[in-house]
Amino acid sequence: MAPGRNEDCWCGSKRKYKHCHHDIDNAPDDQKYETAQRVYSTNWTVTARKHSENGVYDWLASQLVSRAPKRILDIGCGSGHGLVAMREVLGNDVRIVAVDENRACLDSARDTLHRQGVAAQVVHRMTVSQTPTGFNHVAGPLSFDADSACTLIESDICNDPFLTSALLDSGQFDAVTIWLTGVHMLRQFNVNVMENDINSDATHRLYVQNAAYELADAVLHPGGILQVGDRGQTPDTPLLEADLLQAHSHQASVTSLEVKSLAHCPYNEPGQRRTPMVFTPGSAGLIPDKLELAIISVVSEKPQ
Ligand SMILES: C[S@@+](CC[C@H](N)C(=O)[O-])C[C@H]1O[C@@H](n2cnc3c(N)ncnc32)[C@H](O)[C@@H]1O
């Protein structure tokens, strides 16, 4: 029997059922995937608002200041609170192209930017269909106005045959960012995810970040940077720092990118469980008994 709306969800997330699987369970089969995206977007927007108030996005954007990027590709923009911080910290003349596989997140990002007086161009181009075992989420051809202050593109960077060439047609980028990777509750039934044996939050995070390293390698100009922003154990000992750098060097090893620097700041989990943290272990995969949490920024550079 389904839990009551205010009881814990059956999935073990510790969210109330009404904030987790309620709407998905009650949606018609052919609308479940989009419903899961919408539920995720609503929950993430609540969490992101807290991160914004706590200065998480300002800190992540501040790590880019020394590079003064003028053209940024943001992967997985979520509710757009990070994009607002980029503009505030790096200047309103920065041009941003942001991608997200979740249409509801893109629409939320458009609204977040609109409240700041920024009119973003939104490109919807993906369709969802059911298969006997899951869902197909397929992207159509892509073209967009490269001069827009902010363009929000619907794209799954792990499965988009049109993305790289369309981005390159618009020009190379000074920086690529991917902050706080996470995904909606039915992503595990995406046929591409299933074909790649992605069956946990941790392997999904690597799946997306690996694709981000490869995309960054393709679209950055020489000297440009990729910044991965994550939540994890504070890397405050030489061992933990080396472990994390090694994990990212391993991800970068199939590209020309070179891992250059690691920085961190204290992180407090927002006092609600709408989108709880997915822990990011280093290469040794160790999960310590007591977590001292940090926001972590790892910057890699495309050689000149
Ligand atoms: C945890 S949210 C973080 C959003 C934003 N970067 C922030 O820090 O507030 C992760 C976002 O990445 C998006 N995402 C996950 N996998 C993706 C993929 N393969 N391609 C594009 N976007 C993806 C999700 O839809 C979600 O909006």
TrEMBL record:
Per the record's keyword annotation, is S-adenosyl-L-methionine included, yes or no? yes
One GO BP: methylation
Looking at the keywords, is Repeat present? no
- TM regions (residue ranges): none
The record, for SUPFAM superfamilies, names: S-adenosyl-L-methionine-dependent methyltransferases, Sec-C motif
- Provide any one GO MF term from the record: methyltransferase activity
Q: Tell me what this protein is called.
A: Methyltransferase domain-containing protein
Q: Which UniProt keywords apply?
A: Methyltransferase, S-adenosyl-L-methionine, Transferase
* Domain Methyltransferase small, first and last residues per copy: 60-138
Organism in which the protein naturally occurs: Parasphingorhabdus flavimaris
